[in-house]
Amino acid sequence: MEETLKKEVLNRFNEVYSYIKSILDEEISNIDREKIEDGIKIVIEQQDLYEDWIDKIDSAPLPELERIQQVEHNDGIHVKLIYSLKSDEAKQVRKVKVRSNGKVDTFNYIFTWREIEGIPVEIKIEYDTYGNLIFNIKKIQKS
Questions:
Q1: Rounded CA gap, 98 and 93, in Å?
Q2: Over the stretch 106-115, which tens digit does the pLDDT of each residue have?
Q3: What is the Cα–Cα distance from 138 to 124, expressed in whole angstroms?
Q4: Pick from 123, 129, 130, 88: which is nearest to 109 by CA?
Q5: What totals of helices (H) and strands (E) does the chain contain, helices first?
Q6: How far, in Å, CA of 24 to CA of 40, rounded?
Q7: DSSP per-residue string spanning 66-102
Q8: What is the CA radius of gyration of the chain?
Q9: Cα–Cα distance measured from residue 91 to residue 112, given in angstroms and rounded to the nearest whole number
Q10: Domain limits at 28?
Q11: What CA–CA distance (Å, rounded) separates 123 from 110?
Q12: How is residue 13 annotated by DSSP?
């Protein structure tokens, strides 16, 4: 991907992410340490994010093809493509799944990592068709 286009896509991503980050910061400030151990799902109605999410996340050309994977299913081979865009604080991921019958499913996520009360966590951010911003927070297992 051309550097100017990549920079523009990254700027648009950072614009949306900074808005989401402010919501996330407020939400995680109220999280109880014990709940982190089991994982937390926070759903917030955010209708005003809809256009920005569609324009700057769902429709953004992502510069990096991370993985192509063929998965055997009983109905034939499915292909998974994972595209991404990394910023300093987060990573946008688009998973494209092509089924053997030709049906294509696309999923867009933002991942970020934090420490909440000394516990390292991964936060998966998604936005559903009902206008809900969803944070899935799970403890990172140390190996």
A1: 16
A2: 999 999 999 9
A3: 8
A4: 123
A5: 3, 7
A6: 13
A7: EEEEEEEETTEEEEEEEEEEE-SSEEEEEEEEE-TTS
A8: 17
A9: 6
A10: 3-139
A11: 8
A12: H
Q: Which of 104, 126, 125, 107 is nearest to 62 (CA)?
A: 107
Task: Pull the structure tokens for residue 9.
Answer: 């896509």
Contact 42, 66 (CB under 8 A): no
pLDDT, tens digit, 9 for 90 and up, residues 56-76: 999 999 999 999 999 998 999
How far apart, in whole angstroms, are the C-alpha atoms of residue 135 and residue 27? 9
pTM of the shown model: 0.91
Q: Could you tell me if 137 and 120 are in contact, meaning their C-beta atoms sit under 8 angstroms apart?
A: no
Residue 87 and residue 60 in contact, taking contact as beta carbons nearer than 8 Å: no
Q: How many domains does the chain have?
A: 1
